[in-house]
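Sat 14:20. Reprocessing the chain from the morning session after the first attempt stalled halfway. Input below, unchanged.
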Amino acid sequence: MEHQIKSIRPFIGAKDFEVSRRFYRDLGFEETVLEANFSVFKSDAIAFYLQDYYAKEWIENTMVFLEVDDVDRYYQKLLALNVTEKYGVKLTPIRHMDWGSECFLHDPSGVLWHFGKFSE
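Finished this time. Tokens:
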């Protein structure tokens, strides 16, 4: 089967939709409201859908890996945004491993984001 894949857009849920919308806008994502309870968030060529739906077992087991060009710079940006204080979320410092580096950020609902860079 041949295809030209153009994008992949995960769907994530939100415990408090308005708080999650503000959180992702603060992270620098551009929001497009699709419906009253459904938005798409974009940054350059990547995007994901945020929906006003919460199932604890699903949300707390959702992980998204976002590859960035510089983990150290991205981590410093997250610190400067003060998201841990503003949203009560957990930010885990950078880990350096054989495959690359990453830091972790839980969103206000519990979705775990990995911000990482692979070794070259």
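Strands lie at 11-13, 30-35, 38-43, 46-51, 63-67, 91-96, 100-106, 112-118.
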